[in-house]
Amino acid sequence: MENIKQINQSEKISLISALIFVGSILIQIIGISLWPLTNGFTLVLPTIAAITAQLMGNFMLCRLLYKGVTLSFLIPLSSAAVPLVISAIGFLYYGETVSTLKIILLIGACSLIALAGRMK
Fold first, then answer.
1. How does pLDDT run along the chain (120 residues), one tens digit per residue?
2. Predicted pLDDT at 11
3. DSSP per residue, 10-32
4. How many helices (H) and strands (E) does the chain have?
5. Judging by beta carbons within 10 Å of its beta carbon (0-12, 13-18, 19+), is residue 77 exposed, middle or buried?
6. 3, 61, 73, 88: least buried by Cβ within 10 Å?
7. What are the distances in angstroms from CA 116 to CA 34, 44, 62, 72, 120?
8. 19: how many CB neighbours lie within 10 A of its CB?
9. Distances (CA, A) of 32 to 54, 57, 63, 104
């Protein structure tokens, strides 16, 4: 465990790490957005595209961990960003229903995740 580097909260994350993180989130969002097109993973090309995107997004997060970015930074941010954007895509692109309660619960859950990420 000595080889694992940790970024203290006082240290800044490099521009490259930030770009990798944003890219990872975007690729994960693309992968999840493809799920309805897979028809329950029965259509080959959308299934391969969705799985590949998910793997690439997770690979990028693993590289950030290796570079020293802590899990307590990565997981809360990605756990809040991905569901919010996926829900918006579901509402706007796939025609899912939007209810006030659903939006309030989603924003509340993401806020709690962000709060938990700041706790020690």
1. 455 555 444 457 788 988 999 999 999 999 999 999 999 999 999 999 999 999 999 999 999 989 888 877 788 888 888 888 998 898 899 888 888 898 888 888 888 877 776 776
2. 56
3. TSPPPHHHHHHHHHHHHHHHHHH
4. 4, 0
5. middle
6. 3
7. 30, 39, 21, 9, 8
8. 11
9. 7, 11, 20, 22
Nearest-angstrom CA–CA distance, 26 and 63: 16
Residue type, 73: F
Distance between CA atoms of residues 102 and 100, nearest Å: 5
User: Whose structure tokens read 């991905």?
Assistant: 82
For residue 101 the two structure tokens come to: 């309660």
**Whole-structure pTM value:** 0.78
Longest Cα separation, the chain: 49
Two structure tokens written together for 56: 């690439």
Residue 30, amino acid: I
Measured between alpha carbons, how far is 78 from 45 in angstroms, rounded to an integer?
26
